[in-house]
Each structure stands twice: as structure tokens, then as C-alpha cells.
Amino acid sequence: MRKDFLRNAKxxxxxxxxxxxxxxxxGGGGMLAVPLLGATGYEEKQxxxxxxxxxxxxxxxxxxxxxxxxFCDFSVVIPTALGVTAGGVLGAWLLNKLPVKWVxxxxxxxxxxxxxFLFFS
Length: 121
Known about the structure:
The protein is mainly alpha-helical. It has one domain (2-120). It has 5 helices and no strands. The protein has helices at 2-25, 29-39, 44-68, 77-97, 100-120. Helix 1 packs antiparallel against helix 2 (29-39) and helix 1 (2-25) packs across helix 3 (44-68). The model has no long low-confidence stretch (mean pLDDT 86).
């Protein structure tokens, strides 16, 4: 019973961190969710898939708040949504096909690339 409580408390803390990052930065919660879910006992592929499921409602709620405050540029919605949808389908297919080690390598490389991009922007 105590073990379940601690595991769920860790997962709630992960949710708070991911939701805060997503709300503050307008996205990126998934990059935080995956390693944090891994730290709470999820396997690599399971953490990636769970992060996608968790990010959907958080992103939708964050979008509503951003839209209410007038921070959205609706002219990019359709082209971006098409690209995100195609990328999501491709990524889900690759997650199913790639070995766990390569999923981790690709994820780490993507995080490093994002960090370098943000550092120089």
C-alpha cells in the first residue's frame, strides 16, 4: 500500500512538472515527461507512448489559455497541424519498429539538438 502511494506521488509530481513546463513554454512537456516517467519505472517505449497520451489534454488546455490571451497565430494552424500529424504517424510507426536502444539514442540526440538550438537563438 505504501509502495503504491509513493509511486503514485512520484507520478503526480511528474505530472505537475510536465504540466508546468507545457503551460509555461507552450509545449515541450513531452521532452520532460519521457525521462521523468522513465525514472518512475516506465520502460523506454512505454514512457514515450504515455507521454504522448498525457501531453494531449495538457496541450489542449494550454492552447485554450494561450488563445484566450491572444498569443496564437492562427495562420500557421493548418500547415503546422498537417506536419505534426504526419510526423506523429511516422514517429509512432518508428517507435514500434526501432529497438529500445535506438529510441533512446534518437531521443537524446533530439534533446541535445533542441538545447543547442535554444542556446544559440
